[in-house]
Design a protein that fits this description.
- It contains 14 helices and 19 strands.
- The protein has 573 residues and is of the alpha+beta class.
- Strands 1, 5, 6, 7, 8, 9, 12, 13, 14 and 15 form a 10-stranded mixed beta sheet that branches. Strands 2-3-4 form a 3-stranded antiparallel beta sheet, with helices on one face.
- The protein binds adenosine-5'-diphosphate and magnesium ion (MG).
- Residues 1-20, 476-520 are annotated as: Disordered.
- Its main location: other.
């Protein structure tokens, strides 16, 4: 039994072994087949990698070559850079040399042009005359009021800007001056006319610009202007600053200003610590013949701001001095004295030019009736100094050896700026309205006189006698006809010549004989004294604001104890 069971078990075991054997063989076959597939894939991958390797090799070779090339270049770069720098440096050096030499050439040409410009300028000024007279008519203002008295009495020639027509007491009178500005003219238009004079101050010339005319005619407006629309003073300084700046590479300039006034023949320093102190004009004790004003303060200015500070200081000084500043300013001469000192950096040459900007006292004539006491004294002083100024200008124009500078403080102070090569411009201000025509007529006659008489070389003495004598200065009948060369007509044999081209057209005679005091000469004032007319106009305030202004600011006076008024005779540069 056991045996049969054993055999059955054995048989079962054999069957199981058989089946296991078969399972094993199947598994082996499957694994083999899988391994074969995987092997194939690996082979294929390997083949791909081999192919890639084959293509990467040349790229690697190229990279290696490139790298080596770059390495070589980097090693050689400093050398290359050095060489490049060297050649660039050489090129720059050469270019600089070329620019330098062309600069030298330009500088030479510039200097030559500068000389030429100066020569032309001088020639122009010489042709125009060293003394020029222009007129400016202010517009009709609210202060002129309304009605027939405020109607316009002044007309202009559309074709000739040197002619002005005035309708005086129903009769037309015409005048010819160097230039006439109508009420439409702007501050810039007027400044353009005086610009050349101002620049000549940098070249060492002395210049005087006067505003002449009756009170309210626009003197202060022209000289001072308003803060929004400044006049000659402010514009002149601005121009000087910019011109000096332009020449800064070759020249070193210093600009100084003094502000003074002459009231009742007393000269006062409005920038000084003691503005009420009377200043004297003295001759230098060194025998040089130069004048100096001991105690006149001179401030160095570098900008328009500085100027404004100086003005403010002067204004403060003046307002504390006088209760009615407007009235006072119309009865005193206001002077702004600008001195430009230059040193040529390359040659050491020095020049000094002085620009005197003068707002004169009102020129209105005063009748004998209304003037007494201090007003009479004021009027006498104004008359005296304006007459003296007229006499001096007349004597200068006639080129006479003796010029009566000492007859007034104003002419004495300005002596070295009025004589020699100095240049003078008189701006005659007139009011356009009917009620002022007498004063307008007077001012224009004064203007034409200043301008029109010129003496020939042979007969200066004869002319001087008639001009310097007060008695002979009463307006002659010939002057009623406003021919610019009235004197020339009245004394043709004395060698007087009219200004070249002064009679451009036949002017209409006024036919109006002049009354007492309506005189053409400078010496007429003392005969006719009256109270100044009308209240001061609002414009006076501007006058005082700019001319007499001072404040104790950071500005330092460059010479407190004394200022030497140096005279520049002839060009120095
Ligand atoms: P003056 O100094 O001769 O007494 P102002 O300069 O004070 O006269 O002028 C008198 C008035 O006329 C002022 O109100 C001023 O502003 C005005 N005025 C003068 N001239 C002009 C002008 N060209 N344009 C505008 N207003 C002017
Ligand atoms: Mg004034």
């Amino acid at each position: 039994m056991y045996e049969s069971e054993l055999e059955r078990a054995h048989g079962q075991m054999l069957e199981e072994m058989q089946s296991l054997e078969e399972d094993k063989n199947r598994a082996v076959e499957e694994a083999f087949a899988r391994a074969q597939v995987e092997m194939k894939a690996v082979h294929e991958n390997l083949a791909g990698v081999r192919t890639n390797l084959l293509t990467l090799q040349p790229a690697l070779r190229t990279l290696t070559n490139d790298y080596n090339g770059l390495k070589r270049q980097v090693r050689g770069f400093p050398l290359l850079l050095q060489e490049a720098l060297k050649s660039v440096k050489a090129e720059i050096g050469q270019a600089i040399e070329e620019v330098n030499s062309s600069n030298q050439e330009l500088l030479r040409k510039y200097r030559r042009e500068l000389q030429l410009r100066k020569k032309c300028h001088n020639e122009l000024v010489r042709l125009k005359g060293n003394i020029r007279v222009i007129a400016r008519v202010r517009p009709v203002t609210k202060e002129d009021g309304e009605g027939p008295e405020a109607t316009n009495a002044v007309t202009f020639d559309p074709d000739d800007d040197s002619i002005i027509h005035l309708l005086h007491k129903g009769k037309p009178v015409s005048f010819e001056l160097d230039k006439v500005f109508s009420p439409r003219a702007s501050q810039q238009d007027v400044f353009q006319e005086v610009q050349a004079l101002i620049t000549s101050c940098i070249d060492g010339f002395n210049v005087c610009i006067f505003a002449y005319g009756q009170t309210g005619a626009g003197k202060t407006y022209t000289m001072e202007g308003t803060p929004e629309n400044p006049g000659i003073n402010q514009r002149a300084l601005q121009l000087l600053f910019s011109e000096v700046q332009e020449k800064a590479s070759d020249w070193e300039y210093t600009i100084t200003v003094s502000v003074a006034e002459i009231y009742n023949e007393v000269l006062r320093d409005l920038l000084g610590q003691e503005p009420q102190e009377k200043l004297e004009i003295r001759l230098c004790p060194d025998g040089s013949g130069q004048l100096y004003v001991p105690g006149l303060t001179e401030f160095q200015v570098q900008s328009v701001d500085d100027i404004n500070k100086v003005f403010e200081f002067g204004h403060t000084n003046r307002t504390t001095e006088f209760t009615n500043l407007n009235e006072h300013s119309s009865r005193s001469h206001a002077l702004l004295i600008v001195t430009v000192r230059g040193v040529d950096c390359s040659t050491g040459l020095r020049t000094t030019g002085k620009l005197n900007l003068v707002d004169l006292a009102g020129s209105e004539r005063v009748g004998k009736s209304g003037a007494e006491g201090s007003r009479l004294r004021e009027a006498q002083h104004i008359n005296k100094s304006l007459s003296a100024l007229g006499d001096v200008i007349a004597a200068l124009r006639s080129r006479h050896g003796h010029v009566p500078f000492r007859n007034s403080k104003l002419t004495y102070l300005l002596q070295d700026s009025l004589s020699g090569d100095s240049k003078t411009l008189m701006v005659v201000q007139v009011s356009p309205v009917e009620k002022n025509t007498s004063e307008t007529l007077y001012s224009l006659k004064f203007a034409e006189r200043v301008r029109s008489v010129e003496l020939g070389p042979g007969s200066r003495r004869a002319e001087l006698v008639s001009w310097s004598s007060q008695e002979h200065l009463e307006w002659e009948p010939a002057c009623q006809t406003p021919q610019p060369s009235a004197r020339a007509h009245s004394a043709p044999s004395s060698g007087i010549t009219s200004r070249p081209g002064s009679i451009r057209r036949r002017l209409q005679p006024s036919g109006e004989p002049l009354g007492n005091g309506q005189v053409g000469g400078w010496g007429s004032f003392p005969h006719t004294l009256v109270t100044a007319t009308g209240p001061p106009s609002p414009g006076w305030a501007f006058f005082s604001l700019s001319f007499f202004i001072v404040s104790k600011t950071s500005l330092e006076p460059v010479s407190q104890p004394s200022l030497v008024l140096r005279s520049i005779r002839g060009r120095q540069c």
